[in-house]
Amino acid sequence: MALVIENLTRRFGATEVLRGIDLAVADRELVALLGPSGSGKTTLLKIIAGLDWPNAGSLTVADEDWLARRPQTRETGFVFQHYALFPHMRVRDNIAFGLTVQPRPRRPDAAAITARVNELLQFLQIETLADRYPAELSGGQRQRVALGRALATSPRILLLDEPFGALDAQVRRDLRRWLRHVHEASGTTTIFVTHDQEEAFELADRVVVMGAGRIEQIGRPDEIYDHPASPFVARFLGHTVELPVTLQAGRVQARGLDATALPRRALPDGPARLFLRASDITPVPAEDGRYRITDLASTGALLRVRLTESAGVEMDAEVPRRTATALAVGQAVHLRVQAGCVFVDPRSATAPPARPTVPADAPLSELKESLP
Ligand SMILES: Nc1ncnc2c1ncn2[C@@H]1O[C@H](COP(=O)(O)OP(=O)(O)OP(=O)(O)O)[C@@H](O)[C@H]1O
């Protein structure tokens, strides 16, 4: 492992901003820290860089105690959202900066610095910008230069804090692809902070979802997308519809809901909550349908269907517009769900202890054994 964090905590006064973080990042891996504002992402990044210190816990890089190293010797490259390039220096001098200020024994000679800068300019596809000043660059170009500056000293770990946060959507998408390519070619172990789910999923080998100073889930993007580990992760990843349901023999049941497409869950019988994305719901016209269509709005490719339940609960479904010609305002429907995640209702936590669970993909015989 390139970097191992164990039980790291950080308090500011009485506020615990990091509450026991455990994280291992492999060599050459690109890991995204994803979470809402205030979840502790930047604090964690700063601790790795040596710009902040934990109250407890350990941080090692290649088995070496990294907290014992001074920030200047941590061999990290850092890019912030608003990374201030030196305005009076040309691009090539900005990139060279980290090398020129190295202590004399480690500092390369002038020719080696020029060669390294030229190599980076070419590698990052910014040769044509070499003699410009920062004021003559676009935001996206500035962040490419900032990355060049961070990479100049060949850091062991690259730390990026919302580096594309201030840029518009198209530039962000272009830079994401570029960064993925740069990462694959350079192989630098990289930790990337973002609160943008799409950015994290498109870029990262693994995503670390943070909430209120804790790691809620670590996994490959698809794993996290398909199997959120907690209601927090489900909500954060856009499961905006929450329905009270009943679990029986691993099946999700609720009036007006056809959930037979969902796999059986190895969860105890009783109340639970079903978390759905709008795109997981298909309204199916039915005379005795429990939901009524109260609005239809086209977003181009999709039709957004506003649904109201008899008890007043409202939700949106999204269906491909071309397949939804039979839907009309006022129609009664029931809901067919294609995907979703289920968590035992926390309000039932005071109920008798849950029976042992078995893996969700366990054979039926095993599942039955776990049920009464
Ligand atoms: N120096 C400090 N003194 C006091 N509180 C701080 C300090 N630095 C950070 N905090 C608090 O710690 C919490 C976590 O902040 P942090 O910047 O790590 O979160 P974040 O997940 O990176 O958020 P964002 O996405 O908004 O940057 C916040 O509530 C913040 O107010």
Automatic annotation (TrEMBL):
It comes from Fuscovulum blasticum DSM 2131. GO terms for biological process: quaternary ammonium group transport. The keyword Coiled coil does not apply. Transmembrane segments: none annotated. GO terms for molecular function: ATP binding; ATP hydrolysis activity. This is Sulfate ABC transporter ATP-binding protein. Residues 3-237 form the ABC transporter domain. Coiled coil: none annotated. The keyword Transport applies. Keywords: ATP-binding, Nucleotide-binding, Transport.
